[in-house]
Amino acid sequence: MIYGYARVSTADQNLHMQVDALKAYGCTSIAQEKASSVKERPTLRKLLTELRAGDTLVVWKLDRLGRSLKDLVTLVIGFQEQGIQFISLQDNLDTTTAQGRLMFNLFASLAEFERDLIRERTNAGLSAARARGRQGGRPKGLSKEAQSKAEAAKTLYLKRDKSVGEIGKLLGVGRATIYRYLNYLGVKTSLSVMEIS
Question: What was the pLDDT predicted at 191?
Answer without folding.
Answer: 59
